[in-house]
Amino acid sequence: MNHFEVRGGELHCEDVPLSRIAAEVGTPVYVYSRATFERHFTVFRDALVQAGVVDPLVAYAVKANSNLSILKLLSALGAGADTVSEGEVRRALAAGVPGERIVFSGVGKTRGEIAFALKAGVSEINVESEPELKLVAQVAEELGLRAPVVFRVNPDVAAGGHAKIATGKAENKFGVSFAEAARLYANASNHPHLNPLGVACHIGSQITDLAPFEAAFSKMVGLVESLRGEGMSVERLDLGGGLGVPYFNQPDPPSPVDYAAMVARVTKGLKDIRLAFEPGRVIAANAGVLLASVIHLHERPEGRKFLVLDAAMNDLIRPAMYDAFHDIRPVKATDAAPVVMDVVGPVCETGDTFTRERALPPLGAGDLVAFMSAGAYGAAMASEYNSRPLVPEVLVDGDRYAVIRKRPSYEEMLADEIPSDWK
Ligand SMILES: Cc1ncc(COP(=O)(O)O)c(C=O)c1O
Ligand SMILES: N[C@@H](CCCC[NH3+])C(=O)O
């Protein structure tokens, strides 16, 4: 079931023509399908349950798309939240995610953030280094409580994909090294203010092959067994996120069903353990598009064509940052022969190029285009670079839509700045 499809010659999100949103809200704008978000979450969770995983904690990675309305609808389906800052913990709480379904990850949590999360009753603080373990213990002692900690272990597994989003190799900053995990776990077990619950790993993002997951998860299962063998209690194994999504012309990732079957197979020997997952992209990416208007087509006499849009790298940074490919579709379908062009934004950076030499239908000023698969790491990574107001977001539900983050006015954009009165 695809909720972004051409009907009557025009691209729709569910039952709403994208041209209507462009006319009423303006462009650039992110447009999300509620039904797709809900389906993706349900498919992921149900795949695990059907494969035999009992009561998985599916903690949606808030960073992928952190809009409160999105968090609210996932929370209502039973989703937890994987968070990496106090801001994300606050978002999750504000959206109604109960503390016991919140995971707090990240390599540099501050004292204040740890205190906030502990007071909020998060389910696990994923500790990523020895100094952080000490800090969590200190804060827990000051607050007079026992901190639920899970050790994020770096399994030293290469996940493939773009180097900027690989996290599971020893050279990456994430997690305690495999070799020190047992010692730190034992220290925590003997500490009055620490309650070690288990271990976690997250090896990267947009992973399109099961093999690296399987290699990492097998190591984690071995670690749980050896910790238990040394008499330590391990009740949780958090397997992170990272499952890739189809980005049009790229290798098809494994389905959630294949992923779940592998998880069930690799973990089946472990008894009395709760599995947790932190999927982000697989829930959000294909649930959203970035809708933009063509400002003009600039044709050089030598032949190169630049399609200049009103969306730019500040609205969708993935192509500039990771050379990411997003399918670009005209909102009005046409059979006209394609033309080869570069698609660029108005920002003053050469990197503000969404794609080079892409064959697209003829397009000109005022035409609308949609960047597909933009629901994850799109709006969440947007900025105001070049003093462009933060891109708004719209959620579609059947034949209705709601603006779930408005476009700030220029006055609002400037309002937080305090001009100094220095001479
Ligand atoms: C700790 C952690 N968990 C989960 C995720 C979500 O990853 P993805 O969106 O690839 O599922 C990330 C981002 O890669 C992460 O850093
Ligand atoms: N922001 C990245 C994914 C990073 C995942 C965060 N650990 C992307 O758009 O592909």
From TrEMBL:
Binding site for substrate: 281, 318, 322, 349, 377
Pfam families reported for this sequence: Orn_Arg_deC_N (PF02784), Orn_DAP_Arg_deC (PF00278)
Reactions catalysed: meso-2,6-diaminopimelate + H(+) = L-lysine + CO2
Pathway per the UniProt entry: Amino-acid biosynthesis; L-lysine biosynthesis via DAP pathway; L-lysine from DL-2,6-diaminopimelate: step 1/1
Cofactor(s) the protein needs: pyridoxal 5'-phosphate
Orn/DAP/Arg decarboxylase 2 N-terminal domain ranges (all copies): 36-285
Active-site residues annotated for this sequence: 348
InterPro entries noted in UniProt: Ala_racemase/Decarboxylase_C (IPR009006), DAP_deCOOHase_LysA (IPR002986), De-COase2_C (IPR022643), De-COase2_CS (IPR022657), De-COase2_N (IPR022644), De-COase2_pyr-phos_BS (IPR022653), Orn/DAP/Arg_de-COase (IPR000183), PLP-binding_barrel (IPR029066)
EC numbers on record: 4.1.1.20
Binding site for pyridoxal 5'-phosphate: 242, 278-281, 377
Claim: Hydrolase is one of the keywords in the record: no
Function recorded in the entry: Specifically catalyzes the decarboxylation of meso-diaminopimelate (meso-DAP) to L-lysine.
Subunit structure and binding partners: Homodimer.
Family per record: Belongs to the Orn/Lys/Arg decarboxylase class-II family. LysA subfamily.
Protein name (database record): Diaminopimelate decarboxylase
